[in-house]
């Protein structure tokens, strides 16, 4: 038995949506007692840290309904079933920013909210951007503005909470670390 493992006794899907599914599991705890776990099932996501030739980071600003406000974020999107993360990363970069690339480097992956969700996000970086001659159509329910910022400007946006999500904060921290190494 894995340390602290919770054994599923029963699992019930209570909602199937376009983006997530919600299930409630009854589990046996390591001490033998039982408890309920509400779990958001998510297919996973990708995000790209796009850096231009003049060393600006390409962000998108979009409205986030759960927060009732707009955030400035690195381009990102949901994986389709069976989709390769690199394929998804290029698609999202093209749809959201009008840029493409042939060079993506894997940075890391992490769970976004492991207390209630299984979403795993893959982060890539590129400094080999090419503007598309004909921009790709964004998803019909997605509205974004493209913003290019220096690393210093992005850090200020973090302080102002205009950049306020984990993946984008991670991206800025990562770029700051690269810059500090010289």
TrEMBL record:
<dbReference type="GO" id="GO:0016787">
    <property type="term" value="F:hydrolase activity"/>
</dbReference>
<feature type="domain" description="Nudix hydrolase">
    <location>
        <begin position="40"/>
        <end position="171"/>
    </location>
</feature>
<keyword id="KW-0378">Hydrolase</keyword>
<dbReference type="Pfam" id="PF00293">
    <property type="entry name" value="NUDIX"/>
</dbReference>
<dbReference type="InterPro" id="IPR015797">
    <property type="entry name" value="NUDIX_hydrolase-like_dom_sf"/>
</dbReference>
<dbReference type="InterPro" id="IPR000086">
    <property type="entry name" value="NUDIX_hydrolase_dom"/>
</dbReference>
<dbReference type="GO" id="GO:0019693">
    <property type="term" value="P:ribose phosphate metabolic process"/>
</dbReference>
<protein>
    <submittedName>
        <fullName>ADP-ribose pyrophosphatase</fullName>
    </submittedName>
</protein>
<dbReference type="InterPro" id="IPR020084">
    <property type="entry name" value="NUDIX_hydrolase_CS"/>
</dbReference>
<dbReference type="GO" id="GO:0006753">
    <property type="term" value="P:nucleoside phosphate metabolic process"/>
</dbReference>
<dbReference type="GO" id="GO:0005829">
    <property type="term" value="C:cytosol"/>
</dbReference>
